[in-house]
Amino acid sequence: MEYKLLTPGPLTTTATVKQAMLTDHCTWDQEYKTITQEIRQKLLVLAGVSEQEYTTVLMQGSGSFGVEAVLSSMIKPTDHLLICANGAYGQRIVAMSERYQLNYTVYEVAENAIPLAADIAKLIEANPTITVLAMVHSETTSGILNDLTEIAQLAKEQQLLFIVDAMSSLGGIPIDVSGLEIDFLISSSNKCIQGVPGFSFVIAKRKELEQRQTFARTLSLDLYDQYKVMEKDGKWRFTSPTHTVLAFYQALIELEEEGGIHQRYVRYLTNNRLLRQKMSEIGYRPFIKEHQGPFITSFYYPKRGNFKFDHFYAFLKEHGFVIYPGKISSQECFRIGNIGEIYPEDIDRLVEVIEHYSEVAYVS
Ligand SMILES: *Cc1c(COP(=O)(O)O)cnc(C)c1O
After folding, report:
1. CA dist list (Å): 302 to 62, 266, 290, 314
2. Which class is 21-257 in CATH?
3. Per residue, what are the HEC states of 232-244?
4. pTM, entire model
5. pLDDT tens digits, residue range 19-53?
6. According to the annotation, is 335 in a ligand binding site?
7. Mutation probe of ligand 1 site: the residue of 65, 71, 89 with most atoms within 8 A of C-beta
8. What is the distance in A from the centroid of ligand 1 to the CA of 227?
9. For 289-313, how does the pLDDT look when each residue is reduced to its tens digit (9 = 90+)?
């Protein structure tokens, strides 16, 4: 049964991205190492940063491994982190900080609201030892898009190291990485760049990487070590996900062919607006009222009858779509992603299926 993934990643990829994985590469192979170097280079271009100031470090594992690489190897014992958390991914940064016993303070925000620079300024005033600010850009828990601009400005004024989990946003919305002076931006292969799962990457300010090279608490996640080895000739330190790397390279080319990040953003935004409009027409209400991002939307369970997610999920899958369960802590929701190789006609068809479900399969 063929179906499309309407999830936050892994997501639906093109046939050509999947075909790119049909070659077996040796990790020592020069051609393969060159592909790694080109990927690193292309990511800098996508982020709009210079090679003098920034570098890209690829890291085996899912997105969380990239976040953990930054937290476990780039934080000095004397640092004090302020972590903004308005969802599960902000809380994951907290959990990692706890695991490494970092000195941290949590700025907790409701899941339907965004962190505010004014609140952060107060927290910094109350905790003058704070040296690092960490936040999520697109909080996939709810689909809310946090605003980086004012917070970045504050981080700059206060000379804080600025860490951004841009996992589900990089490639799908323009981010002015150097203008915002982000020191470490983390994303992964299977989100808006539309590759397959297998590695994460960090767009890092070289100066900070160099200055923080001796603080790694693990060997495998040592971001500086990985950088030093990769910088020589594109060799990853340990076995890399070779097929995923080839798929990612192809995905980057296809992003360029689509017209770059802005064009992809327009497509995602169009999908998302259409989804929310059509869902509202058939009575589904979104959890996020303000600052809804263009990637994924949380919808409340319908009020009437005894809605069962598993039943709904199975019906949609049978009709060609896979959606995601909710992740909001206090409300019953499901989530529909509109990223990946997804177009307005897919959204039209999905909403027809959901409408059909409400009419025939849904026992009220
Ligand atoms: C996907 C995602 C991650 C990483 O999750 P993994 O399951 O480790 O890939 C981290 N942060 C955000 C905001 C995400 O959307």
Report:
1. 33, 29, 20, 17
2. alpha beta
3. HHCCCCCCCCHHH
4. 0.97
5. 999 999 999 999 999 999 999 999 999 999 999 99
6. yes
7. 89
8. 22
9. 999 999 999 999 998 778 999 999 9
